[in-house]
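Known limitations

Files may contain more than one protein. Parsers should not assume a single record per file. Below, a two-record file is shown to illustrate correct handling: read the sequence, read the token line, then continue until end of file.
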Amino acid sequence: MPSPVRQNSAHRLAAGALLLALAALLGYLESVILPPLPVPGLRLGLANIAVVLALAMHGPRVAAVVSLGRVLIVALATGTAGGPAFLLSLAGACAALAAMVLLASAGPAFSVVGWSVVGSAAHVTGQLLVASLLVSSSVPLALLPVSLGLSVPLGLAVGSTVRLLLSRIPDLSLSAAGR
């Protein structure tokens, strides 16, 4: 995994808070304003821009705070805290974060685009597994092939956006920005 940009703790805290606010805002807007995609439960994943940025710029700890904090904030804002939608969102976020951290720790073989694609696929897989547990049926898993197929272009879009943003942030080292 690329070493996070060395910064003082105040700068790191402020950057993490801004990324959390961005993730929460994008997640909220996506859940209440944008129409859902044709597959139940599938979203664009715009909030993951902030999560992948946090992972690339500040490492797994800040990315976890951004990812899980976003889930909680959006659930509180939309009134879904503690319900099935919250559990599905939490499962997806945890699965995506774990997959992206694993890939990021593999070194330069994978770019932020690869992290995002794998994170997107892990997200829908985690959600559908938990949905199956919640309804005590494997029926939700029937959506897995379509959901995985759609997760690839969505993950590519998020990852490409992150790569573009990283190339425009002057404080990053060339090795992180070129990813």
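...continuing to the second record:
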Amino acid sequence: MAGFRILVVPAVEGDETIDTTENAIHPPNATGVVMRTGGERSIVAHGGRVWSCQLRGKLKQGKRREQTVTVAGDRVVLGALQPEHEPPEAVIEEVLPRRNRISRMGTRRSGGNIEQVLVANLDQVVVVQSLTEPDPQKGFVDRLLVAAERFEVAGHLVLNKVDLVTESALQQDWDYFAGLGYTVLRTSATSGQGVAELAELLRGRTSILMGASGVGKSTLLNTIDPDLALQVSTVASRTGLGRHTTTSTELFPLPQGGFIADSPGLRGFEPWDVDPEEVRDYFPDFTDGAQECRFRTCLHDQEPQCGVKKLVGAGKIPDWRYAAYLALVRDLKDRRRSLRKGGW
């Protein structure tokens, strides 16, 4: 089980306590929660223990539309349990239907036409953006919040490393997201600012922290729960970008209740299952302006008499927000054209 951190986890709501007597080694419908997947095995929380699980062969058959069969957060049915082993072992017989997920398009290596699910069955997405070291990436926050909107998951924004910037930088642009209904927290693992508020936001919920490498996701989690001891790194001076420390999404129990998924740092993000024509639906600040568009199919780009562009011109929708929308639409169109041609 090289590469897995074994954690003592609380029993997950809905799973069944395991009877380890000789006549109950194969209990019916034993369910658990996937904490992490790597290679052909998954770590699953069940009955207050963590189990090393392999997939039943039938789950690996057929054409795969996702990069992995199971992901962190999946609810799974276990069979062939061997609780006497250390760690205990089992077989994943079934992956139960997901109530939601956060996904992006696969990498170039996969050809792009495959779904990379980061986490399943979550309550909220917490987007972490550093205010410096590395500098904010324009439009990146918008893309992550679009993914949350697409799968009907609550979205929040954490602005980290506030101790390293001026007061004016703290206020610049970011409160616009609060006006759209997103929670906006300002945090610093160094000074402790906002850490208690972040811990309370995570309490009792299943959450994923998402952001670029080096923005401080793992450092914030270590501050909330030092027992996690997640690996952290500094920002590369040559590029100004963070180095990857988290290599796969892993679910961790939190001392205040709930679970947190620490995801790999992202250098780019194109949400899965979003057509270019649908992007407008996931920008809630476009709704009012869209009612004034001449055409119902208006993409708020080159069309005349566009209500959204009118709001942009009046300063009611910031230029940077509109630019983020156009960039995402353009990238999704480019991806679609490339896939139709059979290459990337």
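Parsers that stop after the first record will miss the second one. For reference, the second record is described as follows. The two ends are 36 Å apart (CA to CA).
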